[in-house]
Amino acid sequence: MKNIVLIGMMGCGKSTVGTMLAQQLQRKLVDTDALIVEREGRSINEIFAAEGEDYFRTLELAVSRELGEAENLVIACGGGLPLQKECITALKKNGIVFWLCRNPGETYDSMDTSDRPLARQGRQDFLDRFAAREPIYRSAADHIILDFTSPEITMNNILEVLK
Ligand code: S3P
Question: What residues in the chain have per-residue pLDDT under 50?
């Protein structure tokens, strides 16, 4: 079975919805951030502070290539992973990509920014970042999910598409 790949802005609910989806479909969830943190033995903040964003992006590409060879997974991607087209190309080899397109203001207001170095430049920066990324997410997506009334509803919308 193809992997289910969740993309979207930081804080939009990829990990929450991904966890529920994995449980519902009895699949394994892989969170690209969590995998990178585990392998590096340090937090996202520490990786960004010590090595910078470019280094983090090379780790995302390596992880994407690896996961593109897997199957039956639910994959919750870091928010910036689709910025590298090669990551999406790799994940699409055996995956269906869902963009969780949640309102960015609502996302920012409900988000924990503590281990999110790129979310700490304020609300306007976050909205601008979303605007810059929107076309990238759109072109990466096989399906766009728009209802964030609750994580259950978001999950059910994804399940409906998969039927
Ligand atoms: C990032 C999103 C984060 C994490 C890193 C960079 C981004 O993942 O990969 O802080 O550029 O949007 P989440 O989307 O899980 O917060």
Answer: none
**97 Cα: distance to centroid of ligand 1 (angstroms):** 17
Contact 100, 13 (CB under 8 A): yes
| pTM (predicted TM-score) | 0.98
Burial of 19 (0-12, 13-18, 19+ CB in 10 A): middle
Q: CA-CA distance, 33 to 44, in Å (whole number)?
A: 7
CA 14, CA 134: separation in Å to the nearest integer? 16
Terminal Cα distance for the chain, rounded: 13
| Residue 100, SS3 per DSSP | strand
The residue whose CA has the least distance to atom 11 of ligand 1 is 80
Rounded to the nearest angstrom, the gap between the alpha carbon of residue 102 and the centroid of all alpha carbons in its chain is: 12
The closest-lying atom of ligand 1 relative to the alpha carbon of residue 76 is: 15
